[in-house]
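pipeline stage [seq->struct] | target=DUF6788 domain-containing protein | organism=Trebonia kvetii | residues=139
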Amino acid sequence: MTEPTLSDLEAERDRLYARLAAVGDFRRGSVSENWRRCGKPNCACAQPGHPGHGPRMLWTRSESQGKTVGRQLAAGEVDKVRGEIARHAEFTEISRKIVEVNERICEARPAAGTQPSSVPEDGEKRGSPPRSRRRGPLR
């Protein structure tokens, strides 16, 4: 199969940008179902085998410096938040594809005054220039 042309890559990037614009509202995180015991000794939740009070639905996400933040969701919010989390996954995947296409565009687009190939005109690869060696103690 032949490599896509620069215009093919640019067209693919435009299609990805259009998909990205159509994603809509999104948010990071996850929704979990939690059951808990209230701690009252006479409550049904204190009995062996009882799952506890619930379910309580919790939306959690990671903030800066690894801190996890959560908020309890009302029953009517659960489906909305789950949909927004799913759209975040879509946003992430489209963004990853945009980066890949942009890198291919950068490789395909020649620098001003150069050829698009990284191999010199005579076909000989010359390798990297020698590294300089520091002499004496590091300061």
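stage status: PASS
auto-comment: The chain has two helices and three strands. The chain has a mean pLDDT of 86.
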